[in-house]
From TrEMBL:
Protein EC: 2.6.1.11
Location within or outside the cell: Cytoplasm
GO MF annotation terms: identical protein binding; N2-acetyl-L-ornithine:2-oxoglutarate 5-aminotransferase activity; pyridoxal phosphate binding
Protein's GO biological process: L-arginine biosynthetic process
Native organism: Flavisphingopyxis soli
Binding site for pyridoxal 5'-phosphate: G97, A98, F130, D215, E216, V217, Q218, T273
Taxonomic lineage: Bacteria, Pseudomonadati, Pseudomonadota, Alphaproteobacteria, Sphingomonadales
Name of the protein in its database record: Acetylornithine aminotransferase
Keywords noted in UniProt: Amino-acid biosynthesis, Aminotransferase, Arginine biosynthesis, Cytoplasm, Pyridoxal phosphate, Transferase
Length: 404
C-alpha cells in the first residue's frame, strides 16, 4: 500500500509546526518561522492569544456542545454582536467558509422562491473566484483545477470576468438570483474589486430585484482594517459569507443577511449539527472582544500602510523579481515577475518566513492583525535576503547596485 493515512490531497512540505507563539510557529525540529500566512488569514490574533485561549479553555470545561434543538444564549449573544457591528439583521453559524457560502446560496434561492419567482435560481460569479470545496461551491467557480473529475456539478451558475461590470450585466436574465463575489479576491491573487464594479453590481441588483452576495471569508473580520471589506466601498450587501478569521483559529463561519434577504429561511429550511455550538461561540466572542476594541481597526489599517510602504521600498532593489504590491490593510499581495510558488517555498525553507502563494504569481502576505513594527522589520529583512539569494531561471548574472 502506498497511499498515506492522511489522504494526499495537499502537497505537504517539510515544515511541521507543533507549537505557536504570537506571530511565530515552531517546527517539530525546533525551527522557528515568522508566520505571515496565519493559516491563510485565520489566526488573526496570532498563536496562543491569552484571551482567546482562556475563553476556549473555560467554555470547554463548562459546556462544549449541545444540539441546536435547544435555546442558545451563547449563539444569541454572538449573533447580536455581529448584527450590531454590521449591515446584517440575522446570522447562521457554520463550521467553515464553504458552508457559509452554501448557506448564502441557499438563502438567495429561497428569497426568490418565497417571493413567487422560483425560476430565479442562477447566481453569477467571477473568473478566478474561490468559494470553497463542496460540490456547491466548486460549481460556483469556473476554475478547472477544482472541478475536474467531480462533474456533474450543480447547475445554476454563470461566470463573468472579475471586475468587468458590463460582462456581469450581460449575463443577467429572468433566471438570475444575484451575484456572488469576493470584494477582494484572495486565492485569485489579492485582486481588489474596483469601486465602480462593486457599486455597479449593487445598482444592477437594485434595478432587477437581485441579491448581492459577498464572499468575505478571506477579506472579512478586520483583515482590511474594517470589520468587512465592503465597508470601504460604501456598498451594502444583502448576504455575506464569513469565516477564516472569525474564530481566530477555531473552526467557525457565519452567513450574515438582512431581514429581507433571509425571509425564506424559516424553520426546517437549513441546519447544522455543530454550527454555532457553545465552544465555537466562545471563540468567536473572544475574537470580537479584541477586534471591536476602540482603535483596533485603525491599528490594522496603520500597520497595513507601514507594511505596504516597506514592501514597496523593497521593489526597486529586486525589480527582476517583484512588480508591485496590492491589497488593503493586512491583506497584501506582492505581484512577482516570476512564478510565486517556488519563491514562497524558498522563503519558508531557507529564511523562516511563511507566506502563501496565490493565483497570478502573487505572494500573499497575511500576518496576524496584532503584529508590531519589529515583525514588519523582520519580514522585510527575510524577504530581502530571500530575494538576494533566490536562484531561478533567467536570473540576471550580476545585479548592479541601485543608487538610493
Ligand atoms: C478559504 C475560502 C473559502 C472556503 O473556506 P473553507 O473554510 O476552506 O471552507 C471560501 N471563500 C473564500 C474567499 C476563501 O478564501
Amino acid at each position: 500500500m502506498s497511499i498515506t493515512p492522511l489522504m494526499p490531497v495537499y502537497p505537504r512540505c517539510d515544515f511541521r509546526p507543533v507549537k505557536g507563539e504570537g506571530a511565530y510557529l515552531i517546527g517539530e525540529d525546533g525551527s522557528r518561522a515568522l508566520d505571515f500566512a496565519s493559516g491563510i488569514a485565520v489566526n488573526i490574533l496570532g498563536h496562543g492569544h491569552p484571551h482567546l485561549t482562556r475563553a476556549i479553555q473555560q467554555q470547554a470545561a463548562t459546556l462544549m456542545h449541545v444540539s441546536n434543538m435547544y435555546g442558545s444564549p451563547q449563539g444569541e449573544a454572538l449573533a447580536q454582536r455581529l448584527v450590531d457591528a454590521s449591515f446584517a439583521d440575522t446570522v447562521f453559524f457554520t463550521n467553515s467558509g464553504a458552508e457559509a457560502v452554501e448557506c448564502a446560496i441557499k438563502t438567495a434561492r429561497r428569497y426568490h422562491y418565497v417571493n413567487g419567482n422560483p425560476e430565479r435560481t442562477n447566481i453569477i460569479t467571477f473568473n478566478n473566484a474561490f468559494h470553497g470545496r463542496t460540490l456547491g461551491t466548486i460549481s460556483a467557480t469556473n476554475q478547472e483545477k477544482m472541478r475536474d473529475g467531480f462533474e456533474p456539478l450543480l447547475p445554476g451558475f454563470a461566470y463573468a470576468p472579475f471586475d468587468d461590470l458590463e460582462a456581469a450585466r450581460a449575463l443577467v436574465d429572468e433566471h438570475t438570483a444575484g451575484f456572488l463575489v469576493e470584494p477582494i479576491q484572495g486565492e485569485g491573487g489579492i485582486r481588489p474589486a474596483s469601486q465602480k464594479f462593486l457599486a455597479g453590481l449593487r445598482a444592477i441588483c437594485d434595478e432587477h430585484g437581485l441579491l448581492l452576495v459577498l464572499d468575505e471569508v478571506q477579506c472579512g473580520v478586520a483583515r482590511t482594517g474594517a470589520l468587512y471589506a465592503h465597508e470601504h466601498y460604501g456598498v451594502t450587501p444583502d448576504i455575506v459569507a464569513s469565516a477564516k478569521g472569525i474564530g481566530g483559529g477555531f473552526p467557525l463561519g457565519a452567513c450574515l443577511a438582512t431581514e429581507e434577504a433571509a425571509k425564506g429561511m424559516v424553520f426546517g429550511t437549513h441546519g447544522s449539527t455543530y454550527g454555532g455550538n457553545p465552544l465555537a461561540m466562545a471563540a468567536g466572542s473572544a475574537v470580537l472582544d479584541v477586534i471591536l476594541e476602540d482603535g483596533f481597526m485603525d491599528q490594522v489599517a496603520a500597520t497595513g500602510e507601514r507594511l505596504r510602504g516597506a514592501l514597496e521600498q523593497l521593489i526597486p532593489n529586486h525589480d527582476d523579481l517583484f512588480d508591485h504590491v496590492r491589497g488593503k490593510g493586512l491583506m497584501l499581495g506582492l505581484k512577482m515577475k516570476v512564478e510565486s510558488r517556488p519563491f514562497v517555498a524558498h522563503l519558508r525553507d531557507n529564511h523562516g518566513l511563511l507566506t502563501v502563494a496565490a493565483g497570478d504569481n502573487v505572494v500573499r502576505i497575511l500576518p496576524p492583525l496584532n503584529i508590531e513594527q519589529h515583525h514588519i522589520d523582520e519580514c522585510i529583512e527575510k524577504l530581502s535576503a530571500g530575494a538576494r539569494d533566490y536562484e531561478y531561471e533567467g536570473k540576471p548574472m550580476v545585479k548592479a547596485p541601485v543608487a538610493k
